[in-house]
Amino acid sequence: MKLTVNFSLEELTHSDIAVRAGIDNAPPPELMSNLKRTAEAMEEVRQLLGGRPITVSSGYRGPEVNKLVGAYAPERIKVMLEAAVERAAEVEARERGLSVADVMAEAKLLLGV
What does the angle CA 27 – CA 82 – CA 12 come to, to the nearest 5 degrees? Predict the structure, then answer.
């Protein structure tokens, strides 16, 4: 199921750990709107980075999968997201001959943050 042009529900919910353990990692219906908003935000980041693809390594993990891997605290998730954006900004900066700070400032301006 496509959530946006470039992101699918399958992509956001795939878990190698869930597959190996035989766990259904499907999100409950009440979380679908959150996953759609997440995919929409990822589309915005992708566009800010010149349309560069974003690899999703962990979009949603259900409670059973979290028990196997250990749930992340919200602060840890924020740090991981910031690191992913910075890595993408480094690639964009190199390709455009800009500094990472310039690319990040441009992205913040476009996002209004």
Answer: 20
